[in-house]
Design goal:
Layout: H1 3-22, H2 25-30, E1 37-48, H3 57-74, E2 78-84, H4 87-94, E3 101-105, E4 120-125, E5 129-136, E6 148-155, E7 163-170, H5 179-206, E8 211-219, H6 232-238, E9 242-243, E10 268-273, E11 281-282, E12 295-300
Parallel strand pairs: 1-2, 7-8
Antiparallel strand pairs: 1-12, 2-4, 3-4, 5-6, 6-7, 8-10, 9-10, 11-12
Helix pairs in contact: 3-4
Length: about 300
């Protein structure tokens, strides 16, 4: 994150964090539905809507309708999405789930051409959000990844000063025409994770002791099966994150459906810190929706309560 962006983000958060001290009504409005679990879903929805970059007309309308039906059924409390064309289509998608509000959709541009890239990264929440931000990856010493991340500081129930940090990511793909390009993809993903972990540390410091937990979800384009040459998964675990796939057998977590050239594999993940050890699961949806399956985790409500002293 650039120094200017970081300071602006912190300023917005401090304003939001202090506001409830002078407005008790905020805490009452912030209380979510009384449920025993909090549901989070991450989903790469493949050039949404349309499933192709230049999709138009009925193809777009049909894709929107079938994905809306699936999301309505899932009914997540917090929703992370990748490959969104922009804010409006994400808002239209979330509108079918009561109280689910879009809070951030990135606006990244191609580093090579400068054109707006119609595969953006989004977050929606049923709970109030102090602030939300999208930040492109910064120039690295050797590698500069494309895209970036979206993040939301979500207000937790009860004590209005407690925060859940939620990140949505979409790391470099595995498209490569040579071994050199494949290795470069690995290094780009490693650089993204390095910057992501640095940003999380900055945010936790900015919030003092108000961060109750951190969640990172999205399309990592890698896994922990020895299939790829990056260290992204290991880096997250080494930083104290719980990998929610854990010991799930490979055949039960093939989140990418595969293609004529490649077998199905695991590309989509949730990582959590400070929230126990939730277990991820794939959500069964129509094959008309995406080449990725949605991934869901549920967190017991008591994991989000303030620690007892």
């Amino acid at each position: 994150m650039t120094t200017h962006s970081f300071r602006l983000f912190v300023a917005l958060l401090l304003h939001a964090l202090l506001a409830p001290l002078f407005s008790p009504a905020v805490a009452e409005e912030a209380e979510p539905a009384d449920t025993q679990e909090v549901s989070l879903v991450t989903w790469n929805i493949e050039w949404f809507p349309g499933r192709y970059r230049f999709a138009r007309g009925e193809r777009v309308e049909d894709h929107m309708a079938v994905v809306q039906d699936e999301l309505r059924e899932m009914n997540p409390d917090i929703f992370l999405a990748q490959e969104m064309r922009g804010w409006q289509v994400f808002a239209d998608l979330c509108a079918v789930v009561p109280d689910l509000q879009p809070v951030i959709v990135s606006g990244f541009r191609s580093r090579s051409t400068g054109e707006y890239w119609p595969q953006q990264i989004a977050i929606a929440s049923k709970w109030p959000v102090y602030a939300a931000w999208a930040e492109p990856w910064q120039e690295g010493e050797e590698f500069t990844p494309g895209r970036g991340f979206s993040v939301a500081a979500i207000q937790l129930p009860g004590d209005t000063l407690r925060v859940l940090l939620v990140y949505s990511v979409h790391l470099k793909s595995n498209l490569a025409e040579s071994e050199f390009q494949a290795r470069r993809n690995y290094e780009l993903r490693n650089e993204s994770i390095r910057q992501l972990l640095e940003h999380i540390d900055e945010m936790e410091s900015a919030f003092w002791d108000r961060v109750e937990g951190v969640i990172v979800g999205g399309d990592f384009n890698t896994n922990h099966d020895g299939q790829f040459g990056d260290d992204a998964i290991e880096m997250m675990v080494d930083a104290g994150f719980h990998h929610t796939w854990g010991d799930t057998p490979r055949e039960e977590r093939l989140t990418w459906r595969g293609s004529d050239l490649y077998e199905p594999t695991t590309l989509d993940h949730f990582f959590t810190r400070g929230l126990g050890e939730p277990q991820a699961e794939m959500v069964e949806v129509s094959d008309e929706t995406s080449d990725h399956w949605p991934v869901r985790i549920t967190i017991p409500r008591d994991q989000l309560e303030p620690a007892k002293e």
